[in-house]
Design a protein that fits this description.
With 420 residues, this protein is an alpha/beta fold. The chain is built from 13 helices and 12 strands. Bound molecules: N~2~-sulfamoyl-L-arginine (0X9) and zinc ion (ZN).
Length: 420
């Protein structure tokens, strides 16, 4: 009997993310809205078990939680939810259909045009890196591209430095794509780079007084994997010691500040596996080393995620606020006002633990707590769950336009506050 129980629980664990291409046929995204604290707690327990893919994590009473459920899991989850009095609605009724519709649209867009960069379709890692190189070649007085290390599978990681003022100017560090499936993040970050470079005369004042460090896709192996194998992959692709062959760590649980204290897992098959130790993931070490290298010049750290439309600041490891939280909150409010003024898109603001949930090991917490970057923000881009990670490419441009308005507010703030 004992053997049976052990075997059954191994099967359940393995079902979370077996290292075979998952079958999306029949998968749905269910939305549940917990009405009591005990239900939030229950959902968090379900998340930690690792059997379901939570597109949004349980936040608090009244906040929707989106769970992607594979066909074979649906009957069990629906039963479980009703047992604890949780009602659900079907948010995406046919994940497979949406995936193939988007794949077809992406292929059509790419068949008709060149592989050159645009913001009407999503681009591969190689295309993004080639494009960064082309910017540096075309604008050598404004842009510099450096190789800053390799990913686990050997992809070269590049950083673009943008600015005309020379070294020593106050700087903003911006990264994207830490979570592989959050495609709108690299797309939005590259949009902003493109605006700054192609409209360099318009932004001359900012570019003369502020330096930017851009790394638009900091999880290259995971990102490529979402193009080739599993569109909904989140983590890196490193080897783990999992007996099921589960791969990858959550790169946003891997940073060495209060690592593994809360909201992270030591089970490699879960989506929030923190890695075997702080900075076990080489990609995160590469990003960390650039932040350290440019040290006290960096006044702002922005890391772009999706989705939920949130502009968050530390801490993620505790519900306590940083001493200077009011400064971070003020700047976030100004940025979000500008963002919202473009298309009316609503963003919530606050510390990540208080706005969503406690989760230690995030890059924002490290940037502030260890990297001494005062203004560290995690920004969750569009949408609020209609498409979730599968945001149609038609939304790349509006996302870029509105987000860039917010980032310009931040850049002008840096120029005015720290510029000499
Ligand atoms: O859980 C995360 O890593 C982020 N949300 S996402 O849905 N994109 O995965 C939020 C991170 C907030 N920051 C910290 N917890 N430090
Ligand atoms: Zn994310």
């Amino acid at each position: 009997m004992k053997t049976l129980v052990v075997f059954a629980s191994l099967l359940v664990l393995a079902a979370g993310r077996p290292e075979t291409r998952p079958n999306p046929h029949g998968a749905q995204v269910l939305r549940v809205v917990p009405e009591q604290a005990s239900q939030v707690h229950y959902l968090r327990g379900l998340l930690l078990q690792g059997n379901y893919d939570f597109w949004t994590e349980p936040r608090a009473v009244g906040h929707p939680v989106d769970i992607m459920v594979r066909a074979f899991q649906l009957p069990q989850l629906k039963k479980t939810l009703s047992q604890v009095g949780l009602r659900y609605t079907v948010k995406i009724s046919n994940v497979a259909a949406l995936l193939s519709k988007q794949r077809a649209a992406q292929e059509a867009a790419r068949a008709s045009g060149s592989r050159a960069m645009d913001w009407t379709s999503y681009h591969t890692y190689q295309e993004i890196m080639d494009w960064l190189e082309s910017l540096a070649a075309d604008h050598p007085d404004l842009c510099k591209v450096e190789n800053v290390g390799s990913s686990f599978e050997g992809r070269t990681m590049k950083m673009l430095t943008l600015g005309k003022g020379g070294p020593g100017k106050p700087a903003i560090f911006i990264d994207g794509g830490i979570h592989a499936r959050e495609w709108i993040s690299p797309a939005t970050v590259t949009y902003m780079i493109n605006e700054l470079v192609t409209k360099r005369d318009t932004y001359d004042d900012i570019l003369s007084n502020v330096n930017f460090y851009f790394m638009p896709s900091i999880n290259p192996d995971g990102y490529d994997y979402t193009f080739t194998d599993d569109r909904l992959w989140r983590k890196t692709r490193s080897d783990t010691n999992s007996i099921f062959g589960c791969k990858g760590a959550d790169p946003n649980r891997n940073w060495g500040f209060h690592w593994m204290e809360v909201g992270a897992s030591d089970e490699p098959c879960t989506e929030i596996y923190a890695g075997s130790e702080p900075f076990s993931e080489v990609e995160m070490r590469n990003v960390r080393d650039q932040i350290i290298k440019h040290g006290s010049d960096i006044k702002v750290y922005l890391t772009f995620h999706a989705f939920s439309q949130l502009w968050m600041y530390p801490w993620g490891w505790t519900s306590a606020l940083p001493d200077d939280w009011q400064d971070l909150d003020d700047l976030a409010k100004s940025a979000v006002d500008a963002l919202t003024s473009v298309y009316g898109t609503h963003y919530d603001i606050g510390s990540s633990t208080n706005v969503i949930y406690a989760a230690a090991g995030g890059s924002d917490d490290w940037a502030k707590g260890e990297g001494n970057v005062k203004y560290a923000y995690t920004i969750e881009l569009r949408d609020t769950g209609e498409y979730g990670f599968l945001l149609p490419p038609e939304q790349i441009l509006p996302s870029g336009e509105e987000t860039f308005e917010g980032v310009k507010v931040v850049a002008n703030f840096v120029r005015n506050t720290y510029g000499k």
